[in-house]
Amino acid sequence: MIAALIFLAVVVAIAGWWLSRQRLFSKPWLETGDTGLAPGTEAIKLPASKVGLGVFLAVVGALFALFFSAYFMRMELPDWRTLTMPRILWFNTGVLVLSSVALQLAVVAARRNRPSALRQYLIAGAAAAVVFLVGQVLAWRALADLGYFATSNPAYSFFILITGVHGLHMIGGLIALARTSVQTAGDTVSDRLRTGTELCATYWHFMLFVWVVIVALLAGWLNEFADICRQLLV
Questions:
Q1: Taking the model in full, what pTM does it have?
Q2: Which option is the CATH number for 69-233: 1.20.120.80, 3.40.50.1820, 1.10.10.60, 1.10.10.10?
C-alpha cells in the first residue's frame, strides 16, 4: 500500500512538473513586456493536446497505483504463490528503453527540422515497441509452460492483468505514433508534427517509467522498499 501511494505521488509530481513546464500555471496578469495584441496571450498558446495528455497520464498513473495496491493486499493471502520471473522480461525492458531513447532522438530531430532523421527515429521506436509486445506474449507463454494458470495462482492473474493493461496502452501509443509518422512525408517539420512527436515521446517515457515499476513489483523489489518505508514510519 505504501509503495502504491508513493508511486501515485511520483506520478502526480511528474504530471505537475511537466504541465508547469508548458506554462499551464503561469499568471499572465503578472507578466510584463510586449505580449502582442493582448496581455497574457503567451500563456494561452499551450496546445489543448498537451493539457489532455498530462491529465490522461495522471489518470493512467492512478489506475496502475490501484493495481499495485490490490497486488500488495492480495499477496497477503495464503494461496499466493510467487511467480518465477521469466528472463525475457529483462530483454523486454531493454527493448523498451531503446524505444524510449529513439523517441527522444525523434524529438531532437523535430526541433532541428530534420524530417528524414525524424522519420527514421519514429520507425525505430515503433519497431522496438512491437518487439516489446511480442516479448510480452512470449513471457506469458513461458509462465504457462511452467504450470502457472490464472485459475490456480492469483499471482499469475495479476501478472496477466497488469502487463496486459500496460500492453494495451502501448498499442494505443503505437496507433498515435503511426499517425505522427504519416506526417513526416514532407520536406519540413511543421509545428503540428513537432508537437505530436513531443507528445508521443512524453507518453513513451511515462510508459517506460510504469514498466520499470511493474518489473520492480514482480521481482519483489517493491516489497523490500515498502518494508523499509514501514520501518522508517514506525
A1: 0.78
A2: 1.20.120.80
